[in-house]
Amino acid sequence: MFLRLLFESFRRQKRRKSVALLAIALGMSIATAMIAVGNDIGDKINQELRSLGANLVITPIEDTLDVNIGGVNLKPASEGAFINEQELIKIKGIFWGHNIKGYAPFLNAPQKIQTRTGQIDAELIGTYFAQPLHYGKDQFTTGIRSVNPWWKVEGAWPPDYGDFPEQLPPDVLAGIKLAQQAGLSVGDQIEIGGRKLRISGILNSGGEEDQSIVAPLHIAQKLLGQPNAVRRVTVSALTKPEDAFARKDPDKMSPAVRDRWYCSPYANSIAYQLREVLPNVRVEQIRQVEQNQGKVLSRVSGLMLLLTLAALLAAALAVSAAMAATILERRQEVGLMKSLGAGNSAVASLFLTEAGLLALTGGLIGFLAGAALAHRIGQSIFGSAIVVHPVVLAVVLCAAVIVTFIGSAGAVRKAMHFDPAVVLRGDA
Amino acid sequence: MSLNRIKSQLLLRLLFKAAWVRKDRAFTALVSVAVVATIATAALTIYSDLEGKLSREFRGFGANVLVSKTSGALTAGELADIRKTIGNTGEIVPVAYAIATETTSNARIVVGGADVDKLRKLNSSWSFSNAGQGSALVGARVDETITHGADLQLSFGKTSAVIKPAGFFHSGSDDDSRVYIPLDDFVRLTGVQPNTALVRVEGKPLEIQAVISRLSAALPDVEVKPVRQITQAQTAVVGKTRSVVLASSAVVVVLIMLCMVATFTGSVLERRKDFAVMKALGASNRTVNFLFASEAALLALTGSSAGYVLGCGIAFWIGKANFDAAILPQPLLLFPVLLGSVVLALIASTAPLRLLQQIQPAGILRGE
């Protein structure tokens, strides 16, 4: 009997039911889309913030001070300490290795550069451009092109040579200011330490590198006679904004707290893990980048969180209002059922079951539509999909049932309070 | 009493009674309109102020423009020009550099001369630890490798001085190998005037671009360079965040509008009997339409006014909670929000009437 009532109610009131279903589906697609976008925005903006460049820098502990004014390096090539290039691959092996988006090693020294027209003093910088590397089974590419995305090259980026090519002169980049000063252009040959090099592109970095020759690391090591030597490594890592807990000293923590600290992707804990795998280095936050990106990130995430809350509240209210409206119109039915002898609980269970069924169907439709919307937003703004976690489906279905129950319950109770005779006479 | 007067009194009574007798029905309609108006107002208010609010967060990055002269020092006139161009909100810190030798360790150190307090304010992301009554800011690596908290004995060739630290800083950049002393002391010791100025221009990405072009035009002998990674990141982050807020607000507003239209349409369809009784009593289609429309318009106007106020409140609160600065109400939004709600309500309430008009009143009253 109950099932028949339920079935007939859906069959005979298609219009009314579809209005309610539509409202629930719309409300739940808002919920799904906003939860998905709000949940993923942190990661997406974090990726955008990597365009600020590296946020950690690794230098040898024994290194002497940098003597660098206005892009001119006055520290002799032989002075100071170095990091072994072979060890750098361990950077990918730390606990938060997946958060390391890239790293770029540097070896630099002032050199005399022989051009067609004469000799000029400039800095020689060796680095990775887009060096393919293996760590265990993982293959990845790292270098300055991903770490410093604002570097622009007119011409071609040089390849990362494994060794000095003996037949042809290897390709290097000339900084734009140096090129203007020395009259260098793409295709020209220069000489450093008696070795010929070809300029494959003009670099515009907006920084001090504009006055230098930027060469693949292995070429620079050869030219400077320092195999495997690296002066400095910049690391670009996805980090969690720093809070008071992040600034604590891990060596003074209890083991449980220390584990929690170690397993949070703070810049400080990533720096700590880097020091563990690379002996005798200091790892420092590039504070200008790290401190501020955290602030920007938390602002953007906070904003989306609040907007999501507001939208969820609005969706809940809208769905509740829609449910209340459809049930309020059915007081005559309630009157009829009660006059035929139905108890309050029978009436309530019929209405609430209807509401539950509507909620589940509407919630499912809304989830699918909302997931599609979130996907679309991600693709069009960030060029990468926003993936909706399956847990959201459970959350949305629960929310749909709760919200429709709240919306229906008030209206059902109200409908039951009326005297059936009055309702049926149409006086209520 | 003229006929018109009676008619308008009757209309008012009908409107009032329709709302009063079925308070719950009017209330649900009111809530659905108010929700649309609230969320639309809040989203649009936040969106309109977002660029400014988010750009402010990039202040902490410090200097976003470097001004330098390749030969000679920046003149007082040039510095005044820069100050004028960047306005009151920006900051400028002229800096001069020289190399000194620390006499106890014989190490070479880059020494900068600048207004130390301003430099500290500009680089708020550096971590500072106070050291004492001195006047110099000492980089972390200088302290670690050479001085270990002690005073610096600096020799600039002909002159020399003992520099007492006021504080140590960690920056993670080349500055960690430098020492900054007050500009007056620096000029006295070296005779060198600043040839570089660290400039922080405040504003939205486009405003910053405009200031940079104005600076380049005003100072032809000086190189004006944006710190590209900061300006680029600001443009990317502010732009994308705006797009996300706009897209998600659009989704929310459109869907919730549809939701409201469904509620409205549903409740009008439920009133077939009212409609049929009116028609049976001789009301014309026009009168019925008018009656339903004015009811909807009144509800929408009330609901959206309340929604506007509530939406402004939410935007204000979100600004306070998230950006520590209120997002102020936009009076310009009031009219579009009210108009939009009324138009939507009119469409939602009169469209179903057209459906009903095709049915005979007698049929509806019989329950068909």
Would you give an account of this structure?
The complex is a heterodimer of chains A (428) and B (368). With 428 residues, chain A is of the alpha+beta class. Chain A has 2 domains: 2-46 and 295-425, no CATH class; 55-239 and 276-285, no CATH class. Helices cover 49% and strands 20% of the residues of chain A. Chain A has 12 helices and 16 strands. Chain A has helices at residues 2-12, 14-49, 144-147, 176-182, 217-224, 255-262, 267-277, 287-328, 331-339, 344-382, 390-417, 420-425, and strands at 56-60, 68-69, 72-73, 83-84, 100-114, 119-127, 131-135, 138-142, 152-155, 171-175, 189-192, 195-204, 212-216, 229-230, 232-237, 281-285. In chain A, a hairpin with a 2-residue loop joins strand 7 and strand 8 (138-142). The model of chain A has no long low-confidence stretch (mean pLDDT 85). In chain B, strands 1, 2, 3, 4, 5, 6, 7, 8, 9, 10 and 11 form an 11-stranded mixed sheet that branches. The longest helix of chain B is centred in the last third of the chain and has 42 residues, at 228-269. Chain B has 2 domains: 3-56 and 237-366, no CATH class; 64-226, no CATH class. Chain B contains 12 helices and 11 strands. In chain B, helix 2 packs antiparallel against helix 8 (228-269), helix 3 packs antiparallel against helix 7 and helix 8 (228-269) runs parallel beside helix 11. The interface between A and B is large, with 76 and 81 residues.
Q: How do the strands and helices of this protein lay out in sequence?
A:
The complex is a heterodimer of chains A (428) and B (368).
Chain A: H1 2-12, H2 14-49, E1 56-60, E2 68-69, E3 72-73, E4 83-84, E5 100-114, E6 119-127, E7 131-135, E8 138-142, H3 144-147, E9 152-155, E10 171-175, H4 176-182, E11 189-192, E12 195-204, E13 212-216, H5 217-224, E14 229-230, E15 232-237, H6 255-262, H7 267-277, E16 281-285, H8 287-328, H9 331-339, H10 344-382, H11 390-417, H12 420-425
Parallel strand pairs in A: 6-13, 10-12
Antiparallel strand pairs in A: 1-15, 1-16, 2-3, 4-14, 5-6, 5-11, 5-15, 7-8, 9-12, 10-13, 11-12
Helix pairs in contact in A: 2-8, 2-10, 2-11, 8-11, 10-11
Chain B: H1 3-21, H2 23-56, E1 65-68, H3 76-86, E2 91-102, E3 107-113, H4 116-122, E4 127-130, E5 136-139, H5 140-147, E6 152-155, E7 160-163, E8 165-170, E9 178-181, H6 183-190, E10 196-200, H7 205-218, E11 223-226, H8 228-269, H9 272-280, H10 285-323, H11 331-357, H12 361-366
Parallel strand pairs in B: 3-9, 5-8
Antiparallel strand pairs in B: 1-10, 1-11, 2-3, 2-6, 2-10, 4-8, 5-9, 6-7
